[in-house]
Amino acid sequence: MLKPAILYADVLTELFQEYLYTEELFYYIGAPINWVPEISVSDNKFQYAIVDEDDTVLGFLSYSIDLTTSQVRDFGLFSFDPNNSIIGIDVGKKLKELINTYHRVAWQMVSGNPVKRHYDELCKYYNGNIMVLHDTTIDWNGYYRDSYYYEIINLNK
User: Fold this and answer.
1) pLDDT digits (tens, 9 = 90+) for 120-132
2) pLDDT-derived band at 105, boundaries 50, 70, 90
3) Measured between alpha carbons, how far is 31 from 26 in angstroms, rounded to an integer?
4) What is the pTM of this model?
5) What is the spatial distance between Cα 11 and Cα 55, in angstroms, rounded to a whole number?
6) Of 96, 142, 144, 148, most Cβ neighbours within 10 A?
């Protein structure tokens, strides 16, 4: 279930700190840097803790909405429990809601990310577009990685 991240700010900060210098954090940030998101409340930025029925934090979802252009962007999704289906279900419901509400939903990821197959399927289902830019970043080991840009346009909005 998605709950406002501000309610779990300390827990989320601690959990993110455990992933410093890891491939998982590289996938989240898209660059070989260490960074922990600032959990805050903002008019156009939405941040959620993904929690289970026991209120255990499983993941983090964030995005921004530009109301002047009816666009959702700046997605961030991090799983602290990669094999937990609650994350995919909750994120899928939220994406469906956003796609049906706003004109354009867009996000990006770097190659090697294990969720690529799911993003590709989602984009295909909604007749979205996938663009590939080659060698856009370097990972922790000095290897170049491609970036994938996803967009879904709701022509009814």
Assistant:
1) 999 999 999 999 9
2) very high
3) 6
4) 0.94
5) 11
6) 148
Cβ neighbours around 68 below 10 Å, total: 7
Dist. CA 153–CA 157, nearest whole Å: 9
Q: What is the pLDDT of residue 157?
A: 75
Q: Classify strands 104-110 and 71-79 as parallel, antiparallel or unpaired.
A: parallel
Neighbours of 119 (CB within 10 A): 20
List domains and CATH numbers for the chain.
2-153 (3.40.630.30)
Tokens matching residue 50: 């993904």
* pLDDT greater than 90 at residue 91: yes
- Which residue type does 148 have? Y
Task: Give residue-wise pLDDT tens across range 8-51.
Answer: 999 999 999 999 999 999 999 999 999 999 999 998 999 999 99
Cα distance between residue 128 and residue 46, in whole Å: 23
State whether the Cα torsion 89-119-75-157 is positive or negative.
negative
- Between CA 34 and CA 21 the distance in angstroms is 6
Output phi, psi for 114, to 5 deg: -65, -15
Residue 61 and residue 39 in contact, taking contact as beta carbons nearer than 8 Å = no
